[in-house]
Amino acid sequence: MIVHLTEEVKRKLWEINALERSTSKRRTAKRRIAVL
Fold it and tell me: Which of 11, 16, 18, 27 is deepest in the core (most CB within 10 A)?
Protein backbone atom coordinates (compact mmCIF):
# COMPACT_ATOMS: atom_id res chain seq x y z
CA MET A 1 0.00 0.00 0.00
CA ILE A 2 2.80 2.40 0.90
CA VAL A 3 4.46 1.82 -2.47
CA HIS A 4 1.15 2.40 -4.24
CA LEU A 5 0.65 5.67 -2.39
CA THR A 6 4.13 6.89 -3.22
CA GLU A 7 3.58 6.09 -6.90
CA GLU A 8 0.31 8.04 -6.95
CA VAL A 9 1.94 10.91 -5.07
CA LYS A 10 4.78 10.94 -7.60
CA ARG A 11 2.29 11.13 -10.46
CA LYS A 12 0.37 13.93 -8.76
CA LEU A 13 3.58 15.83 -8.07
CA TRP A 14 4.57 15.44 -11.72
CA GLU A 15 1.20 16.82 -12.84
CA ILE A 16 1.47 19.64 -10.31
CA ASN A 17 4.93 20.48 -11.66
CA ALA A 18 3.52 20.72 -15.19
CA LEU A 19 0.70 22.97 -13.96
CA GLU A 20 3.19 25.10 -12.04
CA ARG A 21 5.17 25.64 -15.24
CA SER A 22 2.10 26.84 -17.16
CA THR A 23 0.86 29.01 -14.27
CA SER A 24 2.67 30.90 -11.51
CA LYS A 25 4.87 28.53 -9.53
CA ARG A 26 4.43 30.11 -6.10
CA ARG A 27 0.62 30.21 -6.20
CA THR A 28 0.21 26.59 -7.31
CA ALA A 29 2.90 25.38 -4.92
CA LYS A 30 1.23 27.09 -1.97
CA ARG A 31 -2.18 25.70 -2.96
CA ARG A 32 -0.84 22.15 -3.46
CA ILE A 33 1.06 22.25 -0.17
CA ALA A 34 -2.11 23.39 1.60
CA VAL A 35 -4.04 20.52 0.02
CA LEU A 36 -1.35 17.99 0.95
Answer: 16
